[in-house]
Design a protein that fits this description.
By secondary structure, the protein is an all-alpha fold. The chain contains 9 helices and no strands. It folds into 2 domains: 31-110, no CATH class; 118-237, no CATH class.
Amino acid sequence: MRDDLKGLAITKKELQKLTNLPINDELIIIVNPLKLLVRQFVQKVKGPEGATAIFIGLAVILGSYVVFDLVIKMFAYWIPLPSWFLFITVSLMGGAVTQLLLYLIWKKRVEKVKENMTHSLNTLLHEVDRFNTVVKAIEINDKIEAAGNPEVTIKERIRVLEALKYTRADLIRALNTEKILRENKKFIINNSELLANNLATLTQMQVTEEASEHGRLLNEALEIALDVQQEMKRLHSQK
């Protein structure tokens, strides 16, 4: 990614901070981190420090088993099953319970988003997705250009990126405004007459693409995304 694109997209973490909601929160599947850990372990085994990695891996497993075996002998010696079988069973049950807890936490966070979702927030989130799509399209276009296709060079790149920066600022301002209105809904309702003039101004705030010059440039950026798709299809057909 070129330096002028770094930090331009609105990340999930930033979006959650702006909305004070767990937007786009994903369910953690406990198997996935384990797969990643195993993959990293295999890579280290294949590397120059393979012997060290194997030693550490075996030490962790055996050490965990020894501690578990001591606990069983001290507090659950009456269980007739062998300790190795109990170790595997407890590990699987622990994983299942952990996954269940992760699911319940994720479900609660999803329900929180649904309860606080407003029409304005839903619209703004859609605009954020479109904005990030444009940024991704430019990134892909840059990669295609770097691969030896100078004909796909983005014209007026500086102006397009400037337009995207303005649009990003508009989106952040609108998200902050929506959060303030949503989190102070009760106060606003109870003081509607006092805040009538200010609210009339705030509720009219929206991200429009035709309202300004940088909005027109954003349309050009959106067209870039379509051009990237066409270019990728063309390159694919040449294979």
